[in-house]
Amino acid sequence: MTAQVSSKGTSSMDATQNEVLAEVRNHIGHLTLNRPAGLNAITLDMVRNLQRQLDAWALDPHVHAVVLRGAGEKAFCAGGDIRSLYDSFKNGDTLHEDFFVEEYALDLAIHHYRKPVLALMDGFVLGGGMGLVQGADLRLVTEKSRLAMPEVAIGYFPDVGGSHFLPRVPGELGIYLGVSGVQIRAADALYCGLADWYLESDKLGILDEQLDQLEWHETPLKDLQGLLSKLAVQQLPAAPLAALRPAIDHFFALPDVPGIVEQLREVTVADSHEWATTTADLLQSRSPLAMGVTLEMLRRGRHLSLEDCFALELHLDRQWFERGDLIEGVRALLIDKDKKPRWNPPTLQALDAEHVASFFTGFDQRGS
Predict the structure, then answer these.
(1) What is the pLDDT of residue 265?
(2) Is 354 labeled as catalytic in the residue annotation?
(3) With bands split at pLDDT 50, 70 and 90, how would you rate the model's confidence at 270?
(4) What pLDDT is stored for residue 10 in this prediction?
(5) What whole-number distance in Å separates Cα of residue 150 and Cα of residue 146?
(6) Membrane-crossing residues (predicted)?
(7) What is Dmax (Cα atoms) for the chain?
(8) Residue 29 main-chain phi, psi, to 5 deg
(9) Exposed / middle / buried, residue 59 (Cβ in 10 Å: 0-12, 13-18, 19+)
(10) Which DSSP helix (H) or strand (E) runs through 24?
(11) Looking at 9, 29, 70, 80, which residue is catalytic?
């Protein structure tokens, strides 16, 4: 979900229509998230506009494919507009409940979309932005791309299908990305299988020109892949996570987060000591509860279908505003900006395994 960026948004329907731009050129539906001042953080109105447009294009024989992008120079999408969800909860409204149900439905629709989707992941792709792109058939990154599921930093867990796509990253890399919330760049995104193609940002204009001139044959996905193969590459050298893989696979396979942090400080694997110490410090700044629930959720997600992963995330969502650390995290980082969240529990040592397990009670009984 999360974006550490927010604006109050606008209640005018005319204005919200302009927050998602849609046009069809050469049989391609182009969708642009158009809140560049807010790093294209998505609101419920934007979710609904995206869903409406995708539903219409799915049935339109004139549209062969969809391209998804963000406006401005900085971000594809920095996540959900978390401030509006915080305000909803504090005011006793239900926006935060409706938002997750509809956002997840949109993400799932992209995973199952009947026409190929090309996501141009230029700039920040965080939280809810990852939810929009991970179901796309073709995910393109640039040298400006910064991908992350940073939810634990505000006391939340990596949702929008994160419980499905993170555990399916090779080894324990996805567990590391979810529990730590760190950002990765293009080479690591390709290495982790969270992106498919790399193209320099200043060549996106050329890509657009060639999309406008693309000749369509029987299989639109192959036509798009053929075009990308002439402009972009599918691997980059020297992915930092490749070198750290032995250490990450060791530490993030340990049973629980307190154990992970303890081992990061005490055990050296390969040449990873500096990284391990930095990672331990980072984890100790995050919400202990959010990390504990995230670790359990991701390990369960390894064995669940995509639909059941979204159902698990909704199950957690319905408890999280009352029982989790999100409201306090948003207060500390976005509202009061004192950057001193009072996590509950305050330390990893105080994290109780039964408390973590209690968030999954009920989901276990639903037959998944």
Answers:
(1) 96
(2) no
(3) confident
(4) 33
(5) 11
(6) none
(7) 61
(8) -85, 120
(9) exposed
(10) strand 20-25
(11) 80
Catalytic residue among 159, 188, 308, 317: 159
Residues 202, 305, single domain; the answer is no
Q: What is the mean pLDDT of residues 261-283?
A: 94
pLDDT for 144-180, tens place per residue?
A: 999 999 999 999 999 999 999 999 999 999 999 999 9
Does one domain contain both 264 and 285? yes
Same domain, 65 and 210: yes
Q: Which of 81, 151, 317, 325 is catalytic?
A: 151
Nearest to 131 by CA among 3, 289, 287, 257: 3
- Write down the pLDDT at residue 96: 87
Q: According to the model, what pLDDT value does residue 13 have?
A: 40
Q: Within this chain, do residues 77 and 212 fall inside the same structural domain, yes or no?
A: yes
In a domain, 156, yes or no: no
What distance, in Å, lies between the first and last C-alpha atoms of the chain? 23
User: For residues 164 and 308, what is the distance between their CA atoms, to the nearest angstrom?
Assistant: 9
Q: Is 80 a catalytic residue?
A: yes
Q: Is residue 127 part of a domain?
A: yes
Whether residue 51 is found in the same domain as residue 108: yes
Q: Are residues 108 and 223 in the same domain?
A: yes
| Catalytic residue from among 79, 123, 128, 181 | 128
No. of helices (H) and no. of strands (E), the chain? 17, 9
How many structural domains are present in the chain?
2
Active site residue 317: no
Closest CA to 153 of 40, 288, 297, 37: 288
Task: Quote the crossing angle between the two packed helices 82-90 and 95-111, to the nearest 10°.
Answer: 140
Is there a single domain that holds both residue 120 and residue 259?
Answer: no
Q: Are residues 224 and 249 in the same domain?
A: no
Contacts (Cβ under 8 Å, ≥6 apart) of 280: 261, 264, 265
> 207-222, pLDDT tens digit by residue?
999 999 999 999 999 9
Count CB-CB contacts under 10 A for residue 328.
17
CATH number at residue 109: 3.90.226.10
Domain that holds residue 62: 13-148+197-231
Domain presence at residue 161: no
